[in-house]
Amino acid sequence: MPASDAGRRLGLWRPLPRRDDVRPEPPLSEQQVAPKPRKRRAIPDRAKQFVWNRDGGRCVQCGSTDKLGYDHIIPLSRGGSNTARNLQLLCEECNRRKGNFIT
């Protein structure tokens, strides 16, 4: 007895749906495709002021006073925080060079 006959007798055989019976899946919405990005918490003003005073208003790597920004020593994407211990002043060039690495 062929395997297909045994499947029919046991109730395992099912006919394939006809082409016109198959309904296409509805398209996924934008929210289902990509989750909303999390909103990043702002660096507290007290932490910014403390870091500015601690670092003397200069880039900690090259000493520049142009285009300064607050940099996370341990990036937020790697578990860092917005505390003064994890912040430093870096100029734009040094910050780009550092990237997402831990210094």
Q: Would you write up a description of this structure?
A:
The chain is α+β, with helices and mostly antiparallel strands. It has a domain at 45-98. It has 4 helices and 2 strands; from the N terminus they run αααββα. It has a two-stranded antiparallel ribbon with strand order 1-2. The protein is rod-shaped, with a radius of gyration of 30 Å.
Q: What is the ordering of alpha helices and beta strands?
A: HHHEEH
Q: Count helical runs.
A: 4
Specify Rg, calculated over alpha carbons: 30 Å
Overall, the morphology is rod-shaped
Strand-pairing-aware structural class: alpha+beta
Spatial order of strands in the largest sheet: 1-2
- Low-confidence segments: none
Percent of residues in helices comes to 25-40%
Distance between the termini: 72 Å
Instruction: Average the pLDDT over all residues and give the rounded result.
Output: 82
- Find the count of extended strands (DSSP E, 2+ residues): 2
Beta-strand content: 5-15%
Largest sheet: 2 strands, antiparallel
List keywords for this structure.
single chain, 103 residues, alpha+beta
Strands, helices and their partners?
Layout: H1 3-9, H2 30-33, H3 45-55, E1 68-72, E2 87-91, H4 92-98
Antiparallel strand pairs: 1-2
Describe the structure concisely.
With 103 residues, the chain is of the alpha+beta class. The chain contains four helices and two strands. A two-stranded antiparallel sheet has the order 1-2.
